[in-house]
Amino acid sequence: MEKIRCGWCEKDDLYRKYHDEEWGKPIFDDETIFEFLVLESFQAGLSWYTILTKRENFRKAFDNFDYKKIAGYSDEKVEELMQNPGIIRNRLKVLATITNAQKFQEIQQEFGSFSNYIWGFVDGKPIDNNPKTLKDVPATTEVSDVLSKDLKKRGLKFMGSTVVYAHMQATGMVNDHVEDCYLRKR
Q1: Domain span at residue 50?
Q2: Can you cite a GO biological process for this protein (predicted)?
Q3: Which of 24, 60, 100, 135 has the most CB atoms in a 10 Å sphere around its CB?
């Protein structure tokens, strides 16, 4: 029997695998949360599919998303990244990634982990929106608005409410699997 999935992921096997194995599963480890922050910030203005197809290139280019290393990137490393055709070569986003790695660590120090900080916005458990169809899935919510504003206040870049909400979906802070999706039923 064919699995019924959220309609957005039926483009190809890469998208289906991402939907089936990652999207919407609660993530509490800081390393993976940071990876998604990087990927989501690069996605701003682009399609998630574009980012997903370049994910392994991003992983190699950004030292396996090691925020401690990224926080100390030099001007030479920025220029190296700007010459890398495997990633999105947007200088503002590359520089934002470095800033975000630095601010990420400041938040870790304040809250014990970035996970403690970010999951505090949803009281430590996923919000279940119970969308019937893709039309019922919002692009932003009050929570993403508040979180976005707080991230920006703390100095993070490319963290608008739409980006933040996509991050919340990706890391399982919200469950937006549609009613008919086999993962909703699980």
Answers
A1: 12-185
A2: base-excision repair
A3: 100
Given a contact cutoff of 8 angstroms between Cβ atoms, the answer to whether 30 and 113 are in contact is yes
Q: Please pick, among 15, 23, 35, 48, the residue that the annotation labels catalytic.
A: 48
- 70-127 confidence digits (pLDDT tens): 999 999 999 999 999 999 999 999 999 999 999 999 999 999 999 999 999 999 999 9
Total-model pTM: 0.95
Query: Which CATH number is 158's domain given?
Result: 1.10.340.30
Which residue in the list 15, 23, 35, 40 is annotated as catalytic? 40
The structural domain count of the chain equals 1
Residue 3 lies in a domain: no
DSSP letter assigned to residue 174:
E
- Whether residue 5 lies inside any domain: the answer is no
What interhelical angle do 75-82 and 91-111 show, nearest 10?
A: 130
How much is the pLDDT for 186? 57
